[in-house]
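Async update (no meeting this week)

Hi team, since we skipped the sync, here's where things stand on the single-chain job. The sequence we agreed to prioritize is pasted below, unchanged from the tracker. I ran it this morning and attached the output directly underneath so nobody has to dig for it. Comments welcome in thread, and please keep replies under the output.
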Amino acid sequence: MRISKFILFLSIISLLFTYDTFAQEASNKSQESTQQENKILNPIDTVKEFYRLLREKKYLEGFRLSVYRDAIEPLTAEELKELEPDFEATFSRIPETVKAVGSQSTGALATVFIKSTDNPKDPTAEEIPLMLINNHWVVGDAETLELVKSLGTKFFPEIRIRAHEDAAQIYMERYIGAQKLYSDANKGLYGSIDDLVTATFWPPSLKNGQMEGYKFTIEIGKDKREFWVHGEPLTYGKSGRVSFYADLNGVYRLDNGGQVFRGPQSLGNGK
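Output:
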């Protein structure tokens, strides 16, 4: 996953984000946090500190260095707890080594170029945007800041839903791919999830069908010449909104209140 995805989605968007940690940070500001509030960092140091704090599980301090500050500080204990699995999944992917290789700035905007790998054969660098707000550099861009302002405390829950739905779309496509592989190896027949796992076309760890806030199931025709895949949010409105349906013709999605979607043939056009 590209580092820029952490800035855009944070969900998403993967370090444990528990309310106990947040509450302790909020009620007992550490000396480091106080110093951070008063110290003006340049763009490169801001980016390094941002990732260091998140990697060290100092989330509140880390978010203060980004445009997400106003989206995280007002959240309730319950809202923070609901986000815990998604923050864990997101921040665990932050690489231990984040090297700044340069920066450029114009007025109140800046870009820091970083590398997350020491591979000398990889010349690519990620671009991290920053903005100067109240004389402090913060990680993020104007578009994300406006989204944070418009959504407020709904920002992280909304981003989580979008991330889950994007992931569900990918899983549905992978189910189709697995069925095609199985069919090619079994004279045109399709298989159950057990068949796909046994044939090594589907990971055993994903056999139960619960991934990224969704529950997936496979239906097979009586003659095994057809298959249908369904995906519904585990908690409608929190882990996702749209339900998914897939067959050989592709993946379809529809917001039907979290119910099983039986495909476009049942509604007309749901793709």
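Quick observations from my side:
The longest strand covers residues 99-106.
The domain at 157-266 is CATH 3.30.540 (Fructose-1,6-Bisphosphatase; Chain A, domain 1).
Reply here if anything looks off.
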